[in-house]
Write the structure tokens for this entry.
Amino acid sequence: MIGVFDSGIGGLTVVRRIFELLPDRRVVYFGDTARLPYGTKSPETVTAYAIQDAQFLLERGARLIVVACNSASAVALDALAARFDVPILGVIEPAVEAAARVSKAGEIGVIGTRATVTSGIYQRLMARLRPEAHVRAHATPLLVSLVEEDWMAQPETASIVRRYLEPLCGDGIDTLILACTHYPLLAGVIAAAAGPAVTLVDPSLETVLALKALLDRDPALAASLERGGGGQFYVSDITPHFRTISSQFLGRDVGELRKVSLE
């Protein structure tokens, strides 16, 4: 199976793309909802949690791991790769590659959690791919809570998005990376605030396109993955409205949710 983990339910946007682009592949998902958000925690804590998350998925049959969390992708990929002998994919590098490709002027904005933004990883990766590009990263932590409270259509959310984007759009960005797996659910609101001159990059889509390319290049790995579609979904805590909001992330009924503890 394809193992996918996130600090919460935002990673279901990645699973949704897997179901769309690789419909015959089975997924095992873990959302660490009892310990979210990862974006406010230290790199050491995020790395420790990521190792536990990946170990859990491997024990349940995963043969590769997708780190569907920008905060964990920013600080924990090297530690995961050193510890586990399976392919490890993050959500950051595919998004950076897409932004480098589609940006005409090389003026690129990034919005994400504080941990993602302060890591500087988007700037470092972009400097390798397109050294002349300018990357401006801005922390937008309120957006995660607004999505999880199902406030995507509220006027207050549109106002907060506009306020967050003012400095980036004022600097003339032409491309904006949605550097949090929650943010695709706000893509319409973000696009309206950013304006038609700004191209949005969705890391969940770009990550699954990278995953598909990996499987095309590695037939042995592809053959080792369980087929049949669908998946298993685990979380470390279930809140009262969890099923409703998780179904919105996944784009369909999430089915059985199993609560587990990694402590």
Residues 43-59 form the longest helix (17 residues). The chain is about 50% helix and 15% strand. The longest strand covers residues 107-112. The chain has a mean pLDDT of 93.
